């Protein structure tokens, strides 16, 4: 099962990287202000949870959870910086980093409450 989580986490990481750096021309327009923040929240929550499931059965779990959360946060910041530096059709946005951070924290809380709780019992 760990291999499946690892493959899924790598694929999600790659999908977020590509989706964040390519131009997406959509004929569907969403008129909700800052609706992309929900996408950032969800994407980074799912990304973080998948990486946490990869390390679920490791020793020293709390340190590894902090490492995963910090790594995903740094990844999100790097992606935002690359959007501002490498693309003309995207811009770096501090609110995106905030939405990513809330997704990461939510994933960690869910992981610690649901998965770690049941692992101890």
Automatic annotation (TrEMBL):
Keyword Transmembrane helix: yes
Keywords per UniProt: Membrane, Transmembrane, Transmembrane helix
Transmembrane segments: 37-54, 66-85, 97-116
Keyword hit for Transmembrane: yes
Domain of life: Bacteria
NCBIfam families: vanZ_1
Listed name of the protein: VanZ like family protein
Lineage: Bacteria, Pseudomonadati, Bacteroidota, Flavobacteriia, Flavobacteriales
């Amino acid at each position: 099962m760990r291999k499946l989580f690892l493959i899924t986490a790598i694929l999600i990481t790659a999908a977020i990287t590509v989706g964040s750096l390519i131009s997406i021309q959509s004929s569907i327009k969403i008129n909700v202000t800052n609706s992309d923040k929900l996408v950032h929240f969800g994407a980074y929550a799912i990304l973080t949870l998948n990486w946490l499931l990869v390390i679920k059965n490791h020793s020293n779990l709390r340190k590894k959870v902090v490492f995963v959360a910090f790594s995903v946060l740094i990844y999100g910041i790097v992606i935002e910086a690359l959007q501002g530096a490498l693309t003309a059709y995207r811009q770096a946005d501090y609110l995106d980093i905030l939405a990513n951070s809330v997704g990461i924290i939510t994933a960690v809380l869910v992981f610690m409450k649901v998965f770690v709780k049941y692992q101890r019992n």
